[in-house]
Structure formats: structure tokens, C-alpha cells
Amino acid sequence: NCNEDKVCGSLTGVFNCSLGHCANLSELFLCHYKADGIIVDSDKDNLKLNGFFECYKSRCTKIKNMRSFYCERYCPKISTTANNIYIQYENNVYTGQCGQVTAHNKAEGNEPGSSIQPTTV
Q1: Are 58 and 8 in contact (CB under 8 A)?
Q2: Per-residue pLDDT tens digits for 103-121
Q3: By Cβ atoms counted within 10 A, which residue in 15, 99, 100, 102 is the most buried?
């Protein structure tokens, strides 16, 4: 909440803001964008923080072109050493190491898969 005194004096990262209330997207997402809008000092003009901003030590630049703005889930604390299988279910990621896999569904790209006879892959 940047409306409280000195709370946003050191904002750094990508933020989604509404009237000075900002959520840090950088903690969970890797975002691709071009910050090309107005520059706001989040410590002094926090009510101008409406929309998406790239901030560095409280100097926030608005991300105007939302067509080229997109974010991907980013999980830096997941260790992938010696793992060869990753399963995401809702907000959880499960990892493991397998010697062989048995398929029960045939992938259809973005469409739901179809059932098949169990096949060792």
C-alpha cells in the first residue's frame, strides 16, 4: 500500500497498481514488456500508480503497450537437478526422476487428450 508513508520508497520490479495499492508481479512471474510511459516517483506521487509499472528504487515507468505485455509463471525455488518429470496441478508443481513412463492418454496439443491403451514410453 503506497498510500502509507515511506512504504514504497524502494519499489523494484514489475507491479500491478490501483490507486497506490501495488502487487509485485516479479515474485511469481517473468514478464516481457516495454516500459515507455510516464515516470512516477512512487514515494511522492503514489496516487498516480494506476496500471502496470516497471519500478527501480521507487522510480516507476508505466507500461503503456499492453499488447506486447505478457507474463509467464516463474518458480526460481524449484530445484530441477536430477529430475526428468514435471507435473503441474493447479498451483503445485511436482518433480521426480523416472526410468520409464506409461502413457494412458494421447496428447492433442491444447485440446484435451484422448484415452489409449497403456503404452510404455
Answers
A1: yes
A2: 888 887 778 788 888 888 7
A3: 15
Measured CA to CA, the distance from residue 46 to residue 5 in angstroms comes to 10
The residues spanned by each domain of the chain are 13-73, 85-120
Close Cβ partners of 58 (under 8 Å, ≥ 6 residues apart): 8, 9, 10, 11, 41, 42, 43
What are the backbone angles phi and psi of residue 59, rounded to the nearest 5°?
-90, 110
CA distances from residue 88 to 69, 105, 115 in whole angstroms, order as listed: 24, 16, 20
How far apart, in Å, do the first and last CA atoms of the chain sit?
A: 51
Residue 90 identity: E
